[in-house]
Amino acid sequence: MENIIIPQEMIVSLEKIVGQSFLFLDEETRKHYGHDETEDYNFPPSVVIKPGNTQEVSEIMKLANEYKIPVVPIGGRTGLSGGALSIYGGIGLSMERFNKIEIDEQNLQGIVEPAVITQVFREAAFEKGLFYPPDPSSQGSCTIGGNVAENAGGARALKYGVTKDYVLNLEVVLPSGEIMWTGANTLKNSTGYNLTQLMVGSEGTLGIITKIVMKLLPKNSHNILMMVPFFKSAQACEAVAEIFRAGIVPSALEFMERDAIDWTLKYVDGVSLDIKDEVEAHLLIEVDGNYPDMLFAEAEKIMGVLDQFEIDEILFADSEEQKNALWKMRRAVGEAVKSNSVYKEEDTVVPRYELPTLLAGIKAAGKKYGFHSVCYGHAGDGNLHVNIIKGDMNDENWNTEVPKGIREIFELTVSLKGTLSGEHGIGYVQKNYMDIAFNDTQLQLMKSIKNIFDPNNILNPGKILPDNL
Amino acid sequence: MENIIIPQEMIVSLEKIVGQSFLFLDEETRKHYGHDETEDYNFPPSVVIKPGNTQEVSEIMKLANEYKIPVVPIGGRTGLSGGALSIYGGIGLSMERFNKIEIDEQNLQGIVEPAVITQVFREAAFEKGLFYPPDPSSQGSCTIGGNVAENAGGARALKYGVTKDYVLNLEVVLPSGEIMWTGANTLKNSTGYNLTQLMVGSEGTLGIITKIVMKLLPKNSHNILMMVPFFKSAQACEAVAEIFRAGIVPSALEFMERDAIDWTLKYVDGVSLDIKDEVEAHLLIEVDGNYPDMLFAEAEKIMGVLDQFEIDEILFADSEEQKNALWKMRRAVGEAVKSNSVYKEEDTVVPRYELPTLLAGIKAAGKKYGFHSVCYGHAGDGNLHVNIIKGDMNDENWNTEVPKGIREIFELTVSLKGTLSGEHGIGYVQKNYMDIAFNDTQLQLMKSIKNIFDPNNILNPGKILPDNL
What we know:
Chains A, B: Its cofactor is FAD. Chains A, B: This is FAD-binding oxidoreductase. 2 copies of one chain form a homodimer. The first copy, chain A, is of the alpha+beta class. Chain A has 3 domains: 8-96, Uridine Diphospho-n-acetylenolpyruvylglucosamine Reductase, domain 2, CATH 3.30.43; 101-218, Uridine Diphospho-n-acetylenolpyruvylglucosamine Reductase, domain 3, CATH 3.30.465; 222-415, 3-Layer(aba) Sandwich (Vanillyl-alcohol Oxidase, Chain A, domain 3), CATH 3.40.462.10. Helices cover 36% and strands 19% of the residues of chain A. Chain A is built from 15 helices and 18 strands. In chain A, the strands form 4 sheets. The first copy, chain A, has a 7-stranded antiparallel beta sheet with strand order 15-12-14-13-17-18-16, with helices on both faces. The first copy, chain A, has a 5-stranded antiparallel beta sheet with strand order 5-6-10-8-9. In chain A, strands 1-2-4-3 form a 4-stranded mixed beta sheet. At the A-B interface, helix 7, strand 11, helix 8, helix 10 and helix 15 of A face helix 7, strand 11, helix 8, helix 10 and helix 15 of B.
């Protein structure tokens, strides 16, 4: 697909739909909506439009389908796989005016529009005594719509599941302009094919999400947070599986290599930690519930498990402030690591017991292809973020050797019964590794599904599926 | 589609694949595999075959696809929507030789073949200190493969979710004979379209499931079970939502109308209850966890909520025997109610706060169309089983008036943001109500998905989608 030119008459029609003040052709706006958090890419849409309701989205889609112009839905632009990049230009469909929240206290559900910031939604639920668990590190700026599109996870996924586990029903606009609900507002549903879960994680390639019905839980009143320094990275990884095998399901179990912590402590204000030189990695472990005695018992069990490993003194957060500081640090790791250099980030995921093998494989690939990596992530669910740092590597090696190393890392994850992405999606930057996870039969099925929903391939084209399919 | 005749040469080829001792043409065997638990239907397959491994399934599918002969996968034949009925004859593919279980204690996963009985799998996990929560009432005879195909639920779904929430990855054989995995063995996965969840609940219409990777949890050590008699059915329904609104997530919350209990007490041995004449319904409530003190506190909170309703004395099960007796009774309700008469069972589901409205609507429909219904089910997740009893109703009313009443009940569930089936599937008997839950756009999408996987429509044809689509 070549870069698109939108006919002037179509621009006029689009302006009629959304109104003059919600259509933008200027370079500054287009560039602003041309990037997310994926490496240093910028693919400006040809035009940015900001519809105000589902009906407008429907009319836009009908028009785009008629003119065969790509439409890329845009949320908080915090994505790490390039899902929101307008790689062929076309219409950048910013959903930012879709920001209503309704909390249904009677049914423990949230009816939420896609542009609502994840943290805003979590707080709205919290105020009513309810709990929306998914908490991507970017929760302060990412949107619920983007979370659904990428099937975002976060630190609480090991106990509470990921975004998909909370989505009950979706209002979507198809490329044809038709508006439909994917399911029902029920906790159980065995009524036809699961269109809801087909839409979740489809990265804006099957339909435009305009409304989301989320399951909510009663909120927990207490938690205990502990930071555990390990003298050996591999042992930190091993401890992860051992904690579960002892019958404990923590609400968070995060892994950070030494570099990740050091760089982050320099990057964020107001957090300090006294770490021995010999410490190679940390686990940040949280348990939550309503009964403090139960949490103390769980924490003690965890300490019993940790006894068998070489660890330094455990830090127990003794106040809300200290908890917030530790979480602030953990959430800033990604940004901190990336602030140092050009980078590539992979979102590897394996069954959790395989983490030590994965980590060792990543370091071996780095050695072989000459790159430095900083690893951290949601170890409790086997999801390890691999940040490959360009540093002073020359461009040629960066562009030719590093992708070979990434391919080897992905081959390793798949051989361990894992896969390419745990929570970031495939989007633009991982699509040409999809042949590692899927054979031609599987990829052709996915392509056919795409074709049913979007026969003219106008919805976020050039994402997920490999170029040569 | 007319009833199928399988060419003799194909029978010979099938026999070559599975061996003579695993192919059956006699009437007795065909009739045996011609029914599940759906009303009094019997649709014998033309031939019953019992493949022994995935490769054999693949060869069978290739052959069936070439000859365009329907294939109906058959599990425990406990289904209530007719998913396993060979309505056009063809090949009845009994998966009963697929019965291996592997428990991966390191990753808290079970790798299980489809014919494993649900209870056997639950016990295998339990022996390793692990927990597979889904527990359909038929758990002693239904199979894991059938549970996946119908997205079965059970009594613990309100806290722990349904079958779909445990399926991580599936090995399936497509109608083309191709063997593929749908995903990865990971807790998180944002890698392409969710083929796993498309397969779950697809009732054997998209592929033959030959292996299932299930997530397991650490098992809980304690629970409290209480049986609460309500003087008003409507109040029992209202109490359900109130318990959640008080911040409690029970591990089971079951509703039984008076008739359901009375009939069951007559039907099962070894369970007796002393129930006042004025009692209209019961809730069976369970809380579970590892800390007895916490459970007592939860039970007290529940009793606090129940105080506002007109209830009789609560029965607390004081031994494992009594717990087992109460659960045995609850699980037998379906069979007991159905043993009285010809019946039709609907599997309505609504957001849980709407239960009282649903129950009232069901009774009103019964009055209008002259049928008696007995209702019970998993009220904690809004899933109410409606058993319509033929009793001494004449055949004409049974065949013309009752379907009108069912249609009105389904229209009510959908207007309450609920849907047709919570856990039984649509199968054969509910397919012509699908237009109530879905419009033509949605149904056409489903039909197109079916067509991608199964272009010759050989896999369990005549299920899920309405006849006139």
